[in-house]
Known about the structure:
Oligomer: single chain
Number of strands: 0
Strand content: under 5%
Shape: elongated
Amino acid sequence: MNEGSQYDDEAHDDEAHDDEAHDDEAHDEDEAFTRRAIEACARRGLYGDDVFLVLALLERPEATWPACCETGCEPCMKTLHAAAREALGRTTE
């Protein structure tokens, strides 16, 4: 057996383990972020599909979020923005 390949295999195993640990951490962070978004929505009376609207906002840069149309629709974009900002850890307006 070539000694170099044994060390290469061990290094590869360490890298694979590090990648798995990083993936687990990223998944945990994603779950925590989604949980914060859901909780922020609930505090504003947003449930079901409204939560998905907030999650969709969070996938985009804030500067591209749609503005309030000022027609009194529900849910109002201002409410969705507030929930999204809270999930991001920002203060709401």
